[in-house]
């Protein structure tokens, strides 16, 4: 397998920026338009800009769910979820209705409710991330880093051992998770200049 | 803590970045050519811009096509957030720009003509990527009228009412362009910025009027803006992005370093 990174095209998002990020680091990428292509790549990225319900609907309708479970959950292929791609790992999501997620990491995706009502939602811009598990994507990185966020909903989980970093915007929320070979960030490493590229570089080094 | 953003805006006409005064019209040759959009974007990327806005001021079919190319080229080289606006009329237009590498789209006249575009865009792609850009002019004391078509046509909307309506429909961010202040270097219109900022719960981007370093700080401190957008002062080298951020930081405003 010569292709380092497969990026899932499920009609939700900015595939190009993700591909560009990895390519700039010397990684070979392939945009995956059919679930059968998952077996051709060493690592898989689920990007995503959009609403939870549409994202899940597109993944199911196009046959990704079953094949992803086979390759990632059972097969142990390194996986990176970005933004919506992280949220879809949860059990349920509440954006525009109540939706079932992939349920790879038990949790719920809910709208951010700030303690202080003057805090603005969506959370748009660069914010500090406090790394609590400096491994995986964060290996060799500083404890405090700044990344670009653009979202209104956040992942909430009871299993705090999967959390690798937190962010605060009116409430403390999960900025990234890792569960075995499954990595995910709420922020956009592909849009976070050198800090973001450092994380993508670490993902490129992760082997099944 | 969430940093206040400094955003350069690139007005693109026929594939080149241009700049006018008080919404100068391309067809009246009231524009100065300031360079290649991707070259400028790379320069601002180096200087630490927090985002970049590309605005298609021709807003024609050809303009949109060349804009897709600009966004693709910028996204190939700048690993930072990009917003694109101008002439986006349908959910498909929005999708095309997001696929080209944009993170957010900015709707203006098309949202006024078809407010439902805001709702449809937010449902398809999430509120966080639907920005509503408002061109406002003070037409009476404490009254700002929303204009379309590059500031040429007045609408029946008052800026605050339209901002509120846009947010109700799903806009995730408001950009307030002051027609009075645009290109005049006399400072942002912080009266309307503050009024809108206090009214809506989404981030507000102040636009139009930056000429001095103090103006950026005032937009945040007085206008309560979450981000400051400017064009001329950056294009003509009055300040670099880093100078603005150094200044804001000295004033105690949180910026990304």
Which helices and strands, and how do they pair?
The complex is a heterodimer of chains A (208) and B (257).
Chain A: E1 3-8, H1 15-24, E2 29-32, E3 41-46, H2 52-61, H3 64-74, E4 79-82, H4 84-87, E5 92-93, E6 99-100, E7 108-111, E8 123-131, E9 144-151, E10 153-156, E11 163-168, E12 172-179, E13 182-185, H5 193-205
Parallel strand pairs in A: 1-2, 1-3, 3-4, 4-13, 5-7
Antiparallel strand pairs in A: 5-6, 7-10, 8-9, 8-11, 11-12, 12-13
Chain B: E1 5-13, E2 16-19, E3 32-35, H1 37-47, E4 52-56, H2 61-77, E5 82-85, H3 91-100, E6 104-107, H4 109-113, H5 116-125, E7 130-140, E8 143-148, E9 153-158, H6 159-169, E10 173-178, H7 190-199, E11 204-207, H8 213-221, E12 227-230, H9 232-235, H10 241-250
Parallel strand pairs in B: 1-4, 1-12, 4-5, 5-6, 6-7, 7-10, 10-11, 11-12
Antiparallel strand pairs in B: 1-2, 2-3, 7-8, 8-9
Helix pairs in contact in B: 1-2, 6-7, 8-10
Explain how this protein is built.
The complex is a heterodimer of chains A (208) and B (257). Chain A has 208 residues and is α/β, with parallel strands linked by helices. Chain A has one domain (3-205): Class I glutamine amidotransferase (GATase) domain (Rossmann fold, 3-Layer(aba) Sandwich). In chain A, 23% of the residues lie in helices and 32% in strands. Chain A is built from five helices and 13 strands. Chain A has helices spanning 15-24, 52-61, 64-74, 84-87, 193-205, and strands at 3-8, 29-32, 41-46, 79-82, 92-93, 99-100, 108-111, 123-131, 144-151, 153-156, 163-168, 172-179, 182-185. In chain A, helix 1 (15-24) links the parallel strand 1 and strand 2. The longest helix of chain A has 13 residues, at 193-205. Chain B is of the alpha/beta class. Chain B has a single domain, classed as Alpha-Beta Barrel (TIM Barrel), CATH 3.20.20.70. In chain B, strands 1-4-5-6-7-10-11-12 form an eight-stranded parallel barrel, surrounded by eight helices. The radius of gyration of chain B is 16 Å and the shape is globular. Chain A binds chain B through residues 13-17, 20-21, 24, 49-51, 54, 84, 95-96, 117, 120-128, 146, 148, 150-152, 168-169, 188, 190-193, 196-197, and chain B through 1-5, 45, 50-51, 72, 75-77, 79-81, 98-104, 122-129, 172-173, 201-203, 226-227, 256.
